[in-house]
């Protein structure tokens, strides 16, 4: 069945934000909670009681529209009845172990029907970085080589191998990096790292990657790891030639191409997988977030031939203690079932186009909106002091915008000058319009007051 037409969801505020119960609960947790949790939590100060669709309700009874969706995790919306039904049935039966269950068997079959052609062998893990680490081990097993290339701006996890391949400052002071880790500029055309202009640049960033491999590696490249659209960097969409060019470079070096689809996968971009936008069939895809709709499960998919490689393909060679447990299998089945039944891939394409259009209209009215980009419900917006210099808007100004939105009933990621918009895939145009109206109001307030330069 298709996603049903519903009344657009709206916020409801009954106390100040955060309210007294939220403040009390956050304060009660604070003595025991280590630092370093997500900014959206620390800046909002909210304690959440429940959720429904694109709305979260805090312990004070305030209801907020949610266009962050757990940073792309909450694909089906909060409290989806079909998702709850399937997981409740599983928890009454069996919850631990790696033995086959009916729901896991069906889940893997369903996932394999949507992965890029030939990538039908799937292994499951409990988190994104674990799946990417497994992809690195698989590439070593297959190629018998040990070097990797990733891209500036890329984010792949926080364990030793993936941390080495992050293309930003997350890894600062956490060295030394894994030997054999190399980086090249991503095709971030709004802020071209090579100070060129697309398309006259001739896709020099891809040629730069080729030169890094030639001049910096020891000719032992096992894989190139990339996001089809860079999420953490700000939902950066490359030009259509970039991923095919990277695939060609991988083939030139007898290396695998690993498409990290943690964020892009499972309908988020209006396709089942992000690489489909560029007509690329990678050797390996990693997936997570929307795969389990909040349940901690991730996965890797590759071909029959590649996954036979030893030691990865040896007994226990690719396994994980929690990967593919009965609850994970049920969560995947629930997610894929709802995405299929409610045609959420198509909904992401449709509502995403509506939101992009609205953001571009705002861009015409607010000179501090420097760039708008996106595919489906994976949208990036850059806030700048000056469109010519592209200097980012000050962090404190962005935090002010976040709080103005919050007190109007919107949970967003506008606390960063390169902010991401990635609501649940179930969101309808009416609810999306209500969320954008709150952002528009906050932008209008900033424009009237001035001082943002």
Morphology: globular
Q: Supply the number of helical segments.
A: 14
What is the β-strand count?
A: 14
Question: What distance lies between the first and last C-alpha atoms, to the nearest angstrom?
Answer: 49 Å
Summarize the main sheet: 7 strands, mixed
The ordered H/E elements are HHEEEHHHEHEHEHEHEEEHHHEEHEEH
The radius of gyration is 22 Å
Helix content: 25-40%
Strand order of the largest sheet: 4-10-9-8-7-5-6
Quickly give the structural class.
Answer: alpha/beta
Taking all residues together, what is the mean pLDDT? 96
Strand % is 5-15%
Low-confidence stretches: 1-5
Protein architecture, described:
- Residues 1-5 have low confidence and may be disordered.
- 51% of the residues are buried.
- The chain contains 14 helices and 14 strands.
- It is α/β, with parallel strands linked by helices.
- It starts with 19 loop residues before the first helix and ends with a helix.
- Helix 5 (102-112) packs across helix 11 (326-341).
- The longest helix has 22 residues, at 344-365.
- The chain is globular, with a radius of gyration of 22 Å.
- The chain has a 7-stranded mixed sheet with strand order 4-10-9-8-7-5-6, sandwiched between helices. Strands 1-2-3-13 form a 4-stranded mixed sheet.
